[in-house]
Design a protein that fits this description.
It contains 5 helices and no strands. It is mostly helical. It has one domain: Winged helix-like DNA-binding domain superfamily/Winged helix DNA-binding domain (Arc Repressor Mutant, subunit A, Orthogonal Bundle).
Length: 95
């Protein structure tokens, strides 16, 4: 491992930690239902149909909750940066 590799690894880790901290703060602004549905969809990779069965709502409602939750996160993220949306680090996008 070169010095450049080591520095890049630290910077990537810092960026991922910052992205995760920002996401956790933004998630607190969502409803409990939105947090649950988004977690089941993106953390657990469940389908909308599977989520609907677990949560006890229709698949169409799951679709709306996902859409509205993501829109809320985008709006809040933009607000937290003075209207300019920050691009997540490349590593965070694949994590």
């Amino acid at each position: 491992m070169t010095l450049e590799d080591a520095i890049t690894a630290v910077e990537d880790g810092d960026a991922r930690a910052e992205d995760r901290a920002m996401l956790e703060a933004l998630l607190r602004a969502l409803t409990a239902c939105q947090r649950l549905v988004l977690s089941l969809r993106f953390d657990h990779d469940l389908t909308q149909h599977e989520i609907a069965s677990i949560v006890g709502i229709s698949q169409m409602h799951v679709s709306r909750v996902i859409r509205d939750g993501l829109a809320r996160l985008r709006a809040l993220e933009g607000d937290s940066h003075g209207g300019a949306r920050r691009q997540p680090s490349a590593r965070a996008a694949t994590a």
